[in-house]
Sequence to fold (295 residues):
Amino acid sequence: MKSKPRTRERQLKHKHYAGWLYSIPGFIFLILFFWYPLILSFVVAFQHWHPIKPPVYVGLNNFQLVFNHPLTPLVFKNTLIYAGLRIALTFLIPIIVAILIMEMRKSTIRIMMILWFIPISGVALTILWKYIYNPYYGLLNAIFVGLGFAPQRWLSDKNLAMLCLILPSLIMFAPGLIYIGALQTIPEELYEAAELEGAGFWSKIWHITLPRIRPVIAMLLILAVISAFQEFNLPYIMTKGGPGNATLFAVQYLWRTAFGYMKLGEGTAIAILLFFFLLTLTIIQRKFFRENVDE
Fold:
């Protein structure tokens, strides 16, 4: 009779050790590709670092060079404007579209989920949009000329380049599949009870739908803010920061400083500043955006 408890204890120990054993590859991956680069970046930010020459400690000199550089205010201004416009114009649209799709037939919902699930390369879409904006043979100017308007130099115009980078995000930023999945978890009984109380379509959305998917909205909002401030592919492929640095954003500025001019210490200092800025935004957002659906 005493052998069974001992056997049970051995099984629990084996499961405990097996869990740790299976976790070792994940820990190694995190150490090598996350924690080690993160710690190294804090070290490099205080050094005059070169891939061939030995590093030299310079203290806060890299941060002073970044703050005193004439491009730094313009870069962070461009980044704030781009991130604000992108969040304002692209974040709410997938929520509205997902709610409207849920009012359709189930067969239509399945088709829309399949279309949203199709993997499409963001770089390929960016290159396609660059051809659409082409001032000579682009689709957008062809439409403008057909409607009687004058052709525009979209990506070469300082007043239009920023908006031209926002427009592809309306299509490329589409977490609608996640919203549809969250909407399907809402019990139908809540809507039926609301209808018995005389609630209309918009009343059900405001008092049932939006509160129940609030945790998903909060999570995706954080990811959207981080993604907007870390945008690199879109401006690099389309404008390379031009015209006249009108679309030069923080990550491209970081890349140009670190790898274009081989000033790795200054580039890492920019990365550290961006890291703390995004961390502050995330903390503020987590503090003021409540995620409890029962509140």
Summary: The radius of gyration is 25 Å. The first strand starts at residue 47 and ends at 48.
